[in-house]
Amino acid sequence: MGNWFVNNWFSAIIISVWMGLNIFLFVWFYFVYEHGEEFYYTRHLLGRCSRTMRKQLDKNLTFHKLVAYMIALMTAVHMIAHLLNVEWLNNSRQGVYDNLSTALSNLEDDTDDSDHRTTYLNPIRKNDIQIPTYFVFTSIAGLTGVIITLALILIITSSMEVIRRNYFEVFWYTHHLFIIFFAGLVIHGIGYIVRRQNKESYKEHNPLFCQNRTEDWGKIPECPIPQFEGGPAQTWWYVIGPMVIYLCERLLRFIRYMQNVQYRKIVMRPSKVLELQLVKKGFKMDVGQYVFLNCPAISQLEWHPFTMTSAPEEDFFSVHIRSAGDWTDKLIDIMMGVDGPFGTASEDVFDYEVSMLVGAGIGVTPFASILKSIWYKFKDNDPNLKTRKIYFYWLCRETHAFEWFADLLKAQEKEMEERGMGDFLTYKLFLTGWDQSHVNYVMVNVDQETDVVTGLKQKTHYGRPNWDKEFEQVRKENPTSVVGMFLCGPEALGKVLEKKCGKYSDVDPRKTKFYFNKENF
Amino acid sequence: MGKIEWAMWANEQALASGLILLTGGIVGVAGQFRGWEFAAYSVAAGVFVCLLEYPRGKRAKGTSVERTGQYCFTVCVKAFGPLTRNYYVRAFLHAAICVPGGFMLATVLGCVCLGIASLIYLAAAIRGEHWEPILPRKEVRKPVAESIKNPPQNPPPRPPPEMRRKQAKDLESAAYDNPVSVTADE
């Protein structure tokens, strides 16, 4: 637990502050409605009232999901509360409850004054038998409420992991219902439905004194007819800021979209991997960042994220795209427009003295970018490079996928040897999908200098890595360093590595410490 | 959107609708709303829909992920054979179930959501999808080949001794690579 906190203290603080604000607002408004004098009669009609808040923030996925859960929870609470409210208000109108409720509900609407103040308290005006459903569907709050809750439910069901991972388009298009959601949310409260006694009336008519004298209202000086007014819509205060920021971002993306992108080189790699090298004027990137690609020929609306495999020092940027669905399949035949770069965790690699990089299959792409960048930094003796040792682990099922990356590793291997820097980069390749024919082939060629699969000096390992052994080795070779662990690969592996980082980190600050960072789409 | 299996989304939507119907029904009954009989019905309907939709079907293409503990439900649902396998049946069933929910405010949302799920199931049925249970795979042992019982009696044929020795000058024609150097001088 201690280790988790040391690794994630920043996120933990942000989330605690946000939750704290939510809870504060919830409780604050709860008390406003619970104890405010102007709501005394309102409370009487209703019994309880609660207010829901939610805030929207930036693009961090986990935070987005947390906010989504909070919205869903608050929507449920809000809806149930209003279901009860509407039922009770309706009953009150029918005269089902005590005298005071009936008297309050019978207050007429007096719209003589020009500043649009109305006298009544119970928002349900008609007293012939009316069902709550009718009221809900004929008021702005009710109608928008139902519509946006429906939109929210559709968004949630299409965002479930099964749908998101396997039928991305459904998730993507349905998610745009959020536009309806926020539009409806902002106008949800403009009907002034929740009403309270206004200040002037409160001075003249004290509820505590007058509540039992309903027959005398308007007849005795202490109790003139009480006057009420509706509360204004307030949600837009919270939503307007983030909405403006989001609109700006979309606008910026659109502007960038209009700019020209040129193809420098397009290479088809084995295992249906497409390498695209592109050039865009004024394009700047950092290692491990990703871009969104759009191909109007495939779909006008879809933008898909890809990590860049080129280094910032190069005069072009490249992405390697694996065939993984409708869109990528079509793309492997067609050309596109580009937007980006966006950042992720990999940029932190150079801040650590020692880095352990683990890439599973196509997950090696951010590290391709990093290795190339390291290459350039070393050549230029960049003083900003804190890293002095990198361990790179590549896990892959089949051999074909190695080949496009093999060029890079071969070139690096050669140069490192020439400069006597063999120690800087240690890489281990793990072939997890081996079978008997591999074994036979390897047994026959075991004495060769270069590996039979990749042609590299470093031999390929078969099967999955023994992480305990790897961590022991890193710890032994770097007894006093801070080690950053970076993973681009499956959840399950992430959990294993996170545990190992915790297990092998020493509380003693002079000894080795492992910090876990993960990138996952 | 060519490869999408609508049934997967319909299933998520229907499960959510079941829960919403259930919640709305509970509120209606607990609050003793007017028309609480519809709420009571919704509780039962919600539970039924949840039980029916909890076991996820097998995907036609790709790996299917089970929901936790769904095996018992899978067995029950499978027992109804064509009634649960066919998505037309499900579409009409959900459409019918959702109607009474529309008569009371608390359950209106559940009604509409289930209606939407019914429509998505209809789309799935039209595209020819159907429900397959996710069952644990039975491992089939490959039968051991007969040849393993009869090892060869003779060694394999080898080329004559002159050819077998590695010629230092003529590596190309050597029959094989020797891991250990054969010349005494090195």
From TrEMBL, chain A:
Residue intervals of the FAD-binding FR-type domain: 253-366
Membrane-topology annotation of the record: Multi-pass membrane protein
BP GO terms, sorted: defense response; superoxide anion generation
Catalytic reaction(s) noted: NADPH + 2 O2 = 2 superoxide + NADP(+) + H(+)
PROSITE patterns reported for this sequence: FAD_FR (PS51384)
Pfam families: FAD_binding_8 (PF08022), Ferric_reduct (PF01794), NAD_binding_6 (PF08030)
CC annotations in GO: NADPH oxidase complex
InterPro entries reported in the protein's UniProt record: Cyt_b245_heavy_chain, FAD-bd_8, FAD-bd_FR_type, Fe3_Rdtase_TM_dom, Fe_red_NAD-bd_6, FNR_nucleotide-bd, RBOH/FRE, Riboflavin_synthase-like_b-brl
MF-aspect GO terms: metal ion binding; superoxide-generating NAD(P)H oxidase activity
Localization terms from the record: Membrane
Spans traversing the lipid bilayer: 12-33, 63-84, 134-158, 170-194
Chief location: membrane
Keywords from the named record: Heme, Iron, Membrane, Metal-binding, Oxidoreductase, Transmembrane, Transmembrane helix
Protein name as annotated: FAD-binding FR-type domain-containing protein
Lineage: Eukaryota, Metazoa, Chordata, Craniata, Vertebrata
Automatic annotation (TrEMBL), chain B:
Residue ranges that the Swiss-Prot or TrEMBL entry lists as coiled coil: none
One Pfam family of this chain: Cytochrom_B558a
TM segment ranges: 91-124
GO MF annotation terms: heme binding; metal ion binding; oxidoreductase activity
Signal peptide: none
UniProt superkingdom: Eukaryota
GO CC entries: NADPH oxidase complex
Key words of the record: Cell membrane, Electron transport, Heme, Iron, Membrane, Metal-binding, NADP, Oxidoreductase, Transmembrane, Transmembrane helix, Transport
UniProt KW Heme keyword: yes
Entry function: Subunit of NADPH oxidase complexes that is required for the NADPH oxidase activity that generates, in various cell types, superoxide from molecular oxygen utilizing NADPH as an electron donor. Subunit of the phagocyte NADPH oxidase complex that mediates the transfer of electrons from cytosolic NADPH to O2 to produce the superoxide anion (O2(-)). In the activated complex, electrons are first transferred from NADPH to flavin adenine dinucleotide (FAD) and subsequently transferred via two heme molecules to molecular oxygen, producing superoxide through an outer-sphere reaction.
Name this polypeptide is given: Cytochrome b-245 light chain
